[in-house]
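thread from #wetlab-drylab

HS: before we spend reagent money on co-crystallization trials with nicotinamide-adenine-dinucleotide, can we at least see a predicted complex? here's what I'd submit
DV: go for it
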Amino acid sequence: MRNVIVTGGAGFIGSNFILYELEKDPDIFIVNVDKLTYAGNLENLKSVENDPRYVFRQLDICDAEEIAKLFDEYDIDTVINFAAESHVDRSIEDPMVFIRTNVLGTATLLNIAKEKWSDGKGGFKEGVRYLQVSTDEVYGSLGPEGFFREDTPLDPHSPYSASKASADMITKSYYDTFKMPINITRCSNNYGPYQFPEKLIPLMINNCLNHKDLPVYGDGLQIRDWLYVEDHCKAIDLVVRNGVVGQVYNIGGHNERTNLFIVNSVISYIHDHKDESVDDGLIKHVTDRKGHDRRYGIDPQKIKDALGWYPETPFERGIVKTIEWYLNNEEWIEDVVSGEYQKYYESMYDNR
Ligand code: NAD
Ligand code: TYD
């Protein structure tokens, strides 16, 4: 890959991915295509904004005309689609924007890539690749046993996961029908720097720092399979460069934890290193999320065997790095929790 469109590059995982690639690959050129919704933040990319291998374009992935121009302007050979509405709770409140960006936006990108990458003989130019960044949530919810494999039937429950599953199916159809060189990656819950504080870990860190209640949905015994974001970025890099065309790869680190375990990990680190008055008395069990998936757990054997990937960051190290990043970047948090976030927080959590 040489000239790459990274969509959603101002978001949590996209920013981490761009920083990772610019550090790693001297020959890469990245066009970051991001609409800058509430979740997009160019501060994340301040350190690379003048790098000649990087440009930013504020665009909606549904804007076919403008995106098509980028393919010509930059001779694009790779698209990695991170752009999405990504928060389950918001999808319960307002599903339509999820359908638009996640379904229509993905279809728009695929369709432009198909046209621009045509070799004029019914096939595709050499070396082109489209990677759809997906989620384990498309598989639905597990009982106490078993793991999601790539051939586990899709059974999404939230409007978010249903929109991501739709995007996966459309992506797959471009391989099945046109033999377009695509991959789909399905990753478990990420954590690390630059994550917007609507998601569990940064929300709990921010609330601890502000001595606010820690809202745990229901009994807090739901299980998520946590992966440090840099390990996800490394997996995407391997798939987009070396993945077998048409294949789906699950990405996860066998790191299943209950939500209460996660919240208590945040509390105890902040108690010991920042503020002794933070303790589990701040935990408040609140009304459960509608349709809440009970357990996610990924079987990552395929990507380990095929591409030699493994999660390098144990949870105990990753969570410390993450909390310390937020402690050292209080200005970043203050900036993102001003304005819209306050209204979001009140509507989601007041009287819950
Ligand atoms: P995020 O919400 O932090 O960032 C999304 C980015 O997409 C933002 O910068 C936003 O401005 C941009 N965006 C939204 N709508 C857009 C549009 N119409 N056009 C252009 N840009 C738009 O999300 P994230 O956590 O970084 O997730 C990135 C991808 O990874 C998503 O596709 C998500 O489904 C997937 N994923 C996330 C996780 C996780 O734990 N965060 C796990 C598995 C998969
Ligand atoms: P989240 O970070 O929203 O990711 P996802 O829903 O995509 O897995 O939530 C992770 C888990 O934490 C999920 O089981 C819901 C729960 N949760 C809470 O208990 N309280 C909260 O305030 C939030 C945001 C999440």
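DV: The chain has a mean pLDDT of 97.
HS: ok that's useful, forwarding to the group
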